[in-house]
Queue: 4 jobs
Job 1
Amino acid sequence: MSTTEQLRVAPLTGADDLATASGLYRDVFGYTKPEATLNPRLLMAMAANGGSMVGAWDGDRLVAFGYGFTGHAGGETYFYSQAVVVADGLQGSGVGRRIKGEQRRLALSNGLHHMRWAYNPILSRNAHFNLSVLGAVGRWFVPDCYGDGESRLVVDWDLDADTPAPVPAPWASYSAAEWGRVDRGEGAAAVALPSERSRVTPEVVARMDDAFSGLFADGLVARSCVRQDADTAVYVFTGSDA
């Protein structure tokens, strides 16, 4: 296995590579239903019409893949990253960051200065990467985003920012009994969640959904997610202009 730095990361356009990417997408997420799979023909059409497909190869083996397209909403134009998938055993190795970096390069080369994407906010590792590592800001909370009963947090990443803004830290420690509940501070709020997906329960998800809905309704945005200890990770929210 090559090191992360040795992987070849580049745009992905060929029909064979896109078919392989579709297979990787199914394998990583465990999707079997037709509505959840990724059509290689759709990827080819996107690649030929302004979409962006990025792959990472270890030799001849495709080990990661990201794709997206230009979006326009609310008078703003941006790059929307629909998904980044990394082969089993490589999550957390930095491959995803390289894919995101190539997406950023391509977006900027096309005159786009912001990137958006959605993720399940109960996944604290993803939240840490998106908010605390890359420096994206969670600006929109969408319950039942894809009609599957699961909520998504939509983040916005300023592609012109060379380094992330300072990450706000939690001001208290939290127990498992407080997972999903809001702790309000002065002009800020914290929400603790399980640090591991295996500890997530429907009750915690329901409390988180209520907490996030209320915080976004109050005009706050998600700024960071940091691991408190082996059991708990903590989101920090501040005002949108903080």
Note: The first strand starts at residue 8 and ends at 11.
Job 2
Amino acid sequence: MVAILQFPGTNCEKDMEYVYKNLLGAQTAIVSHKEVALPYDTSLVIIPGGFSYGDYLRSGAIARFAPVMKNTILYAQNGGLVLGICNGFQILSEAKLLPGVLKRNNNLSFISKKQKIKIINTNNRFLSEYSSNQIISLPIAHADGSYYTDKETLESLRENHQILFEYVDNPNGSVNSIAGICNKEKNIFGLMPHPERAVESILGGCDGLAMLRSLL
């Protein structure tokens, strides 16, 4: 079961449901922020993009305290696969499941475009169908997508091979062009690009489909 979380302001849950249900043939469930438990047979949790709670306080800061997150955090801490995309990455950061923060883009503007991404590490479930240093193209759409962390944490991310994605031609000022990271155990992945928007040729490319498929 692929559990797709939904908060007030989430806007990518239907896209993700379409990919897993219609293209990959998986069982899916859209899980409300009000729920206190994930479906019993959950094998993957996805926190999709959007603007949870309108980003009124700080991106992801309110969603982190939603009832469904308590069980999601326990699921992640017990080794369950969790994928956070865009606002989902921000929520994972706010929940301290991933280090660092996502701050306002350097140009202080919302960025929406196709972006070239360099794959850094494939020794994980999320990117196992790709090659190291492969360049793919995925859409980005965010105002608070500039990744930042301190020097010590950055060194730790490098040493533990937790940096999975880097931007080619950094669009938002992320430190070291980081576009996606995982935890040390490599079961939690947060990324700003949208793989679910690059799954069919009609969308302009299929570079994101292998990532989503690899998690089944």
Note: Residues 16 and 196 are 6 Å apart (CA to CA).
Job 3
Amino acid sequence: MNLLTLSQSYDEKKVSPVEIVQQILNKIQQKNPACNAFITVCEEEAFTAARQAEEEIMAGRKRGPLHGVPIAIKDLIFTKKIRTTMGSKVYQNYVPDLDATVVQKCLEAGAILIGKTNTHEFAYGPIGDRSFFGPSRNPYDLEKITGGSSGGSGAAMAANLAYAALGTDTGGSIRIPASACGIVGMKPTFGLVSKYGVFDLAYTLDHVGPMTKTVKDNAALLNLLVGHDEKDPYSFSKTSEDYSRLIGESVKGKVIGLPSFFFQNIEEEVRKAVDQVIDVYRSLGAEIREVAVKGIDEIAEGQRVTIQAEAYAVHEKTMRDHADDLDPEVRERLVMSKEVRGYEYVQVQQRRKHLIDQFNESFHRVDVLLTPTLPIIPTNINQRDVMIGNHAEGVRQALLRLTSPTNFTGNPGLSIPCGFSRGGLPIGFQLIGKHRDEAQLYQFGFVYEQATSMNIDVAGNNAGE
């Protein structure tokens, strides 16, 4: 079952939250040692919450679609009285005294926190194999990466160890593991979801978002997460909105843009899978149009400068006091980040609004942009270089290349599964929209999902078996 199917089963009194939590914990016990999705499993807390949810639901006091639903939270998001490690030795025993705003919202909706999921140390890596607690492993092939940094959340969803998960995304860290693990992942518009109580990686690039099995599940969870939060200086005021409101509407006559930058140097299996996606949309009556995105090279460079400068600002004290405790690769990346000069960072920020406006000119001619999420199939754990045709590229650079530009611009991006490689590894495509246009992305995502029956629940039921 996916999230909304489970919620309906509660309404019909077919199953109980206590039964579901027991099933999930049994699966975690069986599968987590192999895929390493969870750092901390909240067994006692989950049963307590399940008993309360069962009592309330049976008494007709259901709070909404998340009530009684087991969810996983990335171990970068603070949970009160439950350790939050950031995937690092430095914080291996850290227990926050507060819940992040997104956790508060989930708990108030009656969701059940089943555990804290693995993350690339400090979320500073898109691969997912550099955690103090060991790499998260792809349930479709345990020798392959989950992608990162929200790799544990991706693995938990693919292996059916939760009904939904929260991740964070600074350069692609929700969408990368969503693609690599065959699930749906949304990076919302910057500022739409509060970051309060989420350990920083880069102040102006970090996003929190939902990871689910289906598009409708994703919209339901985003509906819960959004809202102005005065405790987050980047949170913008906004009236409430139902992000599922366009789900089920046709895309006939809509225009999909294919930005040329995002189709350069991609593996042939990825290209074929995305070509099939394009054919599906064409068959549904959408117009396909190639577009050139202005300033994309400068945006990519702006993202690099911004993440490095801000990440070192976050970790300057960590590097001074605990450098020897960090993973060598993460430490090396932070050392490199220190090389960004103050004037370079300021110059980028001065140009940023202009570059965002240029990027958004694309939407004068199209409704959404469609791209591969990743240019490559998930690589081996610890692999650091990959050949794309005759083109050699670092794995980290390849994983980030198609997702990170929209962290800099703040545009929403939705990754949706679109098939498998010859080796049985998931492939995903990405839909990018105007700021605050998540509802339309869900509209496009859902019609594809329905047209192809690429219901992620089918794939997930086989993952990790």
Note: The chain has 15 helices and 15 strands.
Job 4
Amino acid sequence: MASKLEALKSSVEKVLGEKLVRATIALEELTVVCAASDLAATLTRLRDEPELSFEQCVDLCGVDYSAYADLPCDGPRYAVVYHLLSLKHNWRLRLRVFAADDDFPVLPTSVEVWNGNNWFEREAFDLYGIVFEGHPDLRRLLTDYGFVGHPFRKDFPVSGHVEMRYDPDQHRVIYQPVTIEPREIVPRIIREENYGG
């Protein structure tokens, strides 16, 4: 497995050249990092170069690195991770791209390279607030259109601020402040004498 990964790493380094920021092999997977400004060209090369032939983007997801692995963030906060698959060569690649601005994360869209990324990018926008510049229809996908915030950000409140419910008197969905009272549940433990031996 290591020789195949080393061959893939060598091919990626050769094809991407100066557009490659970093390439690492860990846990039997190759992860490469490129700059946001080079994203469209990098994705196109990874797809079209016969030596690589990553025909499919299997998944695209947002990541909030503000407290990754309980460590303080020492670089950009938001990233998008692309999981690519080459059926021709039977190998996989993880590509990570960081958004430069933590307050308003923006990355170029990848819909022109893989049309199926349309909904993946909408999901990352909805849940993390990452804006994909040039996306044909960037709008919320999983939360309500009136939803405030992005629920997968690590600073999003666990209980939220408002809840919605259907009001039968008004015949519509209404929003109201959260009514959940914080409480601590301590399980009741019953110990039997001589249990287990």
Note: Residues 2-151 form a domain with the Beta Polymerase; domain 2 fold (CATH 3.30.460.80).
